[in-house]
Amino acid sequence: MSNNTQFSIAVHIMTGLGYKDGADMTSSSLARSVNTCPSFVRRVLSKLSKAGLVHTTTGKAGTCTLAKKASEISLFDIYEAVDAPKAFSIHGYDVQKPCPVSCNIKAALERVLEKTQLSVEDSLKSITLEEVVSDVKSV
């Protein structure tokens, strides 16, 4: 099973921008921090820009900066911006008709997923980017 790391990378990028406290940064410098290619960082930045979380300029000398104060950005804002996956996925195996567990497990897991997802989202809403930046600076 592959993991989708786009949310953690987006938080990494946003923390880098917040850490520099308003200074313009390039996708190349952010990519070095994340240890990935600048084109991937630009794709993530595009999503963050569309969500109104970063300002970007294009071109060879293009830069980006936070569009809001770090204290005004929640981790949920970032989570939504990059369309991160749900807390977990439910398997797609075919139902085995003779087995009552097989016939009903997906519906039961959907209810669990809904509760878990709401809990994750509520938690992310309560954490600001400023808190993450502060944690990074204090370590």
Automatic annotation (TrEMBL):
Q: Name one GO cellular component term.
A: cytosol
Q: What is this protein called?
A: Rrf2 family transcriptional regulator
What the entry lists under InterPro entries is as follows: Tscrpt_reg_Rrf2, WH-like_DNA-bd_sf, WH_DNA-bd_sf
UniProt cross-references to Pfam families, sorted A to Z = Rrf2 (PF02082)
Which PANTHER family is this protein grouped with? HTH-TYPE TRANSCRIPTIONAL REGULATOR YWGB-RELATED, WINGED HELIX-TURN-HELIX TRANSCRIPTIONAL REGULATOR, RRF2 FAMILY
User: What terms describe the molecular function in GO for this protein?
Assistant: DNA-binding transcription factor activity
Q: Which PROSITE patterns match?
A: HTH_RRF2_2
Q: Which residues form a coiled coil?
A: none
Question: Which superkingdom does the taxonomy of this entry point to?
Answer: Bacteria
Gene3D superfamilies linked to this entry: Winged helix-like DNA-binding domain superfamily/Winged helix DNA-binding domain (1.10.10.10)
